[in-house]
Amino acid sequence: MSEFMNIRSGGGQIRWRLMIGGSTVALLAAASASPARAEDTGRPTVRIDVGVQLERVDGGLERFAPPFVSQIDVSRFTSPIAVQRPPRYANGLDGSLSLQPEDSDWIFSAAIRYGRSNSNKKVHQESPAQILHKYYSVPLLGAYGTGTATAVGKRYANTDSRYEESHMVLDFQVGKDVGLGLFGRDSTSTFGAGIRFAQFASKTASVIGGDPDFHVSYKYADALPPPLPPIPGYFKIPLQYWHLYRASAEIARSFHGIGPSISWNSSVPVAGNAEHMELTFDWGVNAAVLFGRQKVVAHHETDGSFHYPGTGLQISTVALPHHAYATARSRMVTIPNVGGLVGLSVKFPNAKVSLGYRGDFFFGAMDGGIDVRKTYDRNFYGPYATISIGL
C-alpha cells in the first residue's frame, strides 16, 4: 500500500549528497596535501575497518489493539498484542575509512553502521468444537428421543503480524591524536568532532480476527417453535451466539536527523609490543545532537458482526459499526544521542582485530504512536567484532 512507501524528501537526498561529497573532498584534499609514505614512519596512513555486530534494539512502539482484543485476552488465547512484539535483536555491518597524513596528528574519518531486523509471526488458536444436546418428547405423536449435533462455530483467534526495522548511522569526523599518555606511556587518545547522520525506519502490518465469545445456551419449551405446528410436548433446544471480529493495520514510521558530534577514543597497551603484536584495552565515548524529522503514516480499520438465534431458531446476523482511521503526521525534533564502547584489540604493525561491546542511545527519536504522537527512545547495544587493515 502507499502508506508503506519510504518516507523521503528531496531535501533529505540533497543533504545526503552534499555531506558525502564534502567529506570525500576533505579526505582527498588532506591526502593531496600530505603524501603518504608509510615506509618512512612505520605507521599506515590509510586504515580500513570492517565488522559485524549483534545489537539489542530497545525503545518500543505502540502496538495495534482494537477494542475486541480484551475479549481475546480473557478467552485464554495468546494476546495479539504479545504476538506483535518487535524482534529484540538486529544483525548488521559496520565499516570505516580513516586517513592520517604523514607527520600529522590529524585523522580524517568516515564511518557507517547499518542494521536491520525482521519478523513474521502467525498465531492461530481455537477451542474444541462444542457438542449440542437435544431432547424432545411429544406424547401426542408418541415420539421421544435425544440427539447430538456439532455447533456451527467455535471460539478462535488469529493474529498475523509482520515487522521490519532498519537503522543507519553515518559519521564524518576530523580528530587529533593528542597523545596524552594518561593511562601509560604508550597509550593513545584521540579527540574528534564532526557530523553525524542517523536514519531509523520501521514498518508494521497486522491482521487480527477471531470469535472470542462463542457460547451455547439451552431453551426449554412445551411446544414446537414456529414455524413448526405448535404441538405440545417437552423440548430442549440449543441456542448458539457468537461475534466475529476482524481488524487490520499498516503503519510506517521514520526518523532522519543530522547534527554535530564529538568523540573521545583511547587505547591502552596491556601486553606485547607495537613492533610485533600487542594486546590493548580500548574504550570510547561519543555524543551528538541531531536535528531532524519524525514521520508516521498509519491506517487501520475494524469491523465485525453478531450472530444469534432468530425467529424459528434460524441464525440472524447484525453487522457491527465499521471503524476506520488514517493519519499522516510529521514533526521537527531535536534528539540527544550518547554512546560508548569497551573492548580488546590484538594489534599487528598493519592490522588489528577487535572484540568488544558498544551502545548508542537516541532519546525520543521515534514517534511510536498510532492515532496520536508518542515518543520512544531508540537504543542499540551489543557485541561487535572488527578487522582493521592498514595501507
Distance between the termini: 48 Å
Coarse morphology? elongated
As laid out across the biggest beta sheet, the strand order is 1-2-3-6-7-9-10-12-13-14
Helix tally?
4
State the secondary-structure class: mainly beta
Helix and strand sequence: HHEHHEEEEEEEEEEEEE
Instruction: Tell me the number of strands.
Output: 14
Residue stretches low in confidence (pLDDT < 50, at least 5 long) are 1-41
Mean pLDDT: 86
Query: For the CA atoms, what is the radius of gyration?
Result: 33 Å
Q: What's the helical proportion of residues?
A: under 10%
Strand composition percent: over 45%
Could you describe the largest sheet, including whether it forms a barrel? 10 strands, antiparallel, barrel
Provide the descriptors you would attach to this structure in a database record:
mainly beta, disordered N terminus, single chain, 391 residues
